[in-house]
Amino acid sequence: MLEERSMFSSAPLTEETGLHVQELYAANSVDSRPLRPRDPLRDIEGMQLLAQSFTRSAEDALQQLVDLALELCRADSAGISVVRTDGSAENYYEWVATSGRFHPFLNAVLPQYPSACGVALDRNRPQHFRVDQRFFSLLGVSADPVLDGLLFPWKAGDTHGTIFITSSTNPVQFDSQDARVMQILADFAAAALRQQQQQRVILQHAADVAAGAMANVLAHQINNPLQSLTNTLFLLQNSPHAESSTQATIALEELERLSRLVKELLSVYTTAGGR
Prior knowledge:
The protein is of the alpha+beta class. The chain has helices spanning 2-9, 40-53, 58-72, 116-123, 133-139, 176-204, 209-221, 226-237, 244-271; strands spanning 13-14, 19-23, 77-83, 93-100, 109-110, 127-131, 146-156, 159-167. An eight-stranded antiparallel sheet has the order 1-2-6-7-8-3-4-5. Helix 2 runs antiparallel to helix 3 (58-72), helix 6 (176-204) packs antiparallel against helix 7 and helix 8 (226-237) runs antiparallel to helix 9. It is globular and about 55 Å long.
């Protein structure tokens, strides 16, 4: 089983499984696709909702993540997979959040092979993937084929997984701005899973005040950039003559700034012991 997965991971195309995976920024990548019109105001409003979800629970944040990926990238499906700590080769990945056409597969458990998630994690880089009916037949499920899919790995301590979006109707649905948004959301997925791990520690060690304080750091500090997001939103709303491309650039820069904060917090959290 492991040998098969290693062979699969090194190949961009696997005809026998119906699963096609290649580097996202390889030849004919999303960078070469024309950009579609975007609503920068919606990008910012969506990220505000996401940041607020962290103050409620990690589960809320995970669901908000996939719902936002679905909307901002105009995808048919979105999901977050996690490598199970107690899994076997047959029960290796779990979809802990889903949205869109794949919503019925929430909490589905998938094998280690064949898996686009495994390729992304092995390479530790974003991947482009397609799936035809042969893949779903191997899994024994009924689902729409994936004509266009983006897959981003993330890591939270010892926990690994991916976040993905798919289109079952358009083979060139996603562009480079979708890829930028998804990279940001992958950073947030790592933060949400880290927060979820800490919440479990709190339940197990309710008397540990230090653990409780650490658990709240990520949820509260992630709101610090919201003032900047709000200011940008105000300027966009009151600048009817601004160019759309300029607005999109500003919005994405703000989102990436928020993503960098998440990375810094995770780094500090890991250095402090990540309990």
